[in-house]
Amino acid sequence: MTVTAILGAGVMGETLLSGLLRSGRDAGDIVVTGRNPQRVAELVERHGVRSLGNAEAAAAAQTVVLCVKPQDMEGLLDEVRDHVGPDAVVVSLAAGITTAFVESRLPEGTSVVRVMPNTPALVDQGMAAIAPGSHCTDDHLAEAEQLLSSCGRVVRLAEKHLDAVTAISGSGPAYVFYVVEAMIEAGVVLGLPRATSTELVVQTLYGAATMLKETREHPTVLREQVSSPGGTTVAALRQLDDHKVRAAFVTAIEAAAARSRQLASGTA
Ligand SMILES: NC(=O)C1=CN([C@@H]2O[C@H](COP(=O)(O)OP(=O)(O)OC[C@H]3O[C@@H](n4cnc5c(N)ncnc54)[C@H](OP(=O)(O)O)[C@@H]3O)[C@@H](O)[C@H]2O)C=CC1
Ligand SMILES: O=C(O)[C@@H]1CCC=N1
């Protein structure tokens, strides 16, 4: 039996936990920790997993998953430093926090993997990137890959790319939800009942995402197929271009990557 400890089981921790259970992991092999006893009790009740303190959980686990906010990482690493086993792999999900940051606060030689997941993992459609730290073996990286593949796709990348990944796929679902909100609102402005507008937008998004994935066509080709000369789509797209929406996306995503780099100190 190998034990996985999820330290700081909030949104992302519970997402990973539920993915592990759906993929067939035994609830008895998963330990969660948290700061709020009511939250921990909820997780135990909902998923049948065990709860322990951070130090005990770290000591009991072969895979220790750090799921706290970047600003809480220093404190958590202080708590577990003397308890992580020499053969354990430590997996950090925190935006911006480097493997060097984690390694420097754990015993010399500890195997660390940095991961950037996203919330669609909750429906087994996650996209995660993983990067090895300086003491991480192939076996440990494969372990992290298996952990994340329980709830979606995983790519292996060099750590230098992880701030960009954070800005694209880590934060990405929020940009999509933002666009969805705007489209639903537009439907309401045009007089559609809110429920109808929501159904139209959600299915359109699902259909468009499925086309991208299944046809593997370039998005420009798919967009041109919708855009009749002199028609409705080009009238709308011209407005988006006039309002510099494409440029705004690039600037916004650059800001997310910059913020990820800033979070690297763990205190920003
Ligand atoms: N949400 C997302 O879409 C994504 C998040 N991430 C990363 O995942 C990490 C977690 O994010 P998210 O799940 O959204 O955040 P949450 O705030 O939902 O979860 C973090 C949890 O950790 C708890 N916590 C804080 N300090 C400790 C501690 N010392 N011991 C035990 N528990 C502690 C918090 O408790 P309390 O409630 O008391 O603060 C909270 O319940 C972040 O580092 C984030 O960058 C990565 C990819 C996507
Ligand atoms: O907003 C954040 O900082 C985290 C990291 C990626 C998604 N959510």
General description of the model:
The protein has an 8-stranded mixed beta sheet with strand order 3-2-1-4-5-6-7-8, sandwiched between helices. The model has no long low-confidence stretch (mean pLDDT 96). The chain has 2 domains: 4-162, NAD(P)-binding Rossmann-like Domain (Rossmann fold), CATH 3.40.50.720; 172-262, ProC C-terminal domain-like fold (Orthogonal Bundle). Strand 2 (30-33), helix 2 (37-47) and strand 3 (50-51) form a beta-alpha-beta unit. The chain has 268 residues and is an alpha/beta fold. Helix 7 (162-170) crosses helix 12 (245-262) and helix 8 packs across helix 9. Helix content is 54%, strand content 13%. (2S)-3,4-dihydro-2H-pyrrole-2-carboxylic acid is lined by residues 95, 166, 170-171. Keywords: Amino-acid biosynthesis, Cytoplasm, NADP, Oxidoreductase, Proline biosynthesis. Its EC number is 1.5.1.2. One of its GO terms (molecular function) is pyrroline-5-carboxylate reductase activity.
The gist of it:
Helices cover 54% and strands 13% of the residues.
Low-confidence stretches: none
How much β-strand is present in the residues?
A: 5-15%
Report the sheet with the most strands, covering strand number, pairing sense and barrel closure.
Answer: 8 strands, mixed
Helix and strand content put the structural class at alpha/beta
* Helix/strand order, N-terminal first: EHEHEHEHEHEEHEHHHHHH
Number of strands: 8
Bound molecules: NADPH dihydro-nicotinamide-adenine-dinucleotide phosphate, (2S)-3,4-dihydro-2H-pyrrole-2-carboxylic acid
- Would you tell me the overall average pLDDT? 96
CATH superfamily of the largest domain: NAD(P)-binding Rossmann-like Domain
Helix content: 40-55%
Identify the overall geometry: elongated
Major sheet: arrangement of strands? 3-2-1-4-5-6-7-8
Q: Write the CATH fold name of the largest domain.
A: Rossmann fold
Under the CATH scheme, the architecture of the largest domain is 3-Layer(aba) Sandwich
Distance between the termini: 39 Å
Number of helices: 12
CA radius of gyration: 21 Å
| Number of domain units | 2
CATH class of the largest domain: Alpha Beta
Main location: cytoplasm
Catalytic activity: L-proline + NAD(+) = (S)-1-pyrroline-5-carboxylate + NADH + 2 H(+); L-proline + NADP(+) = (S)-1-pyrroline-5-carboxylate + NADPH + 2 H(+)
Function: Catalyzes the reduction of 1-pyrroline-5-carboxylate (PCA) to L-proline.
Binding site for NADP(+): 7-12
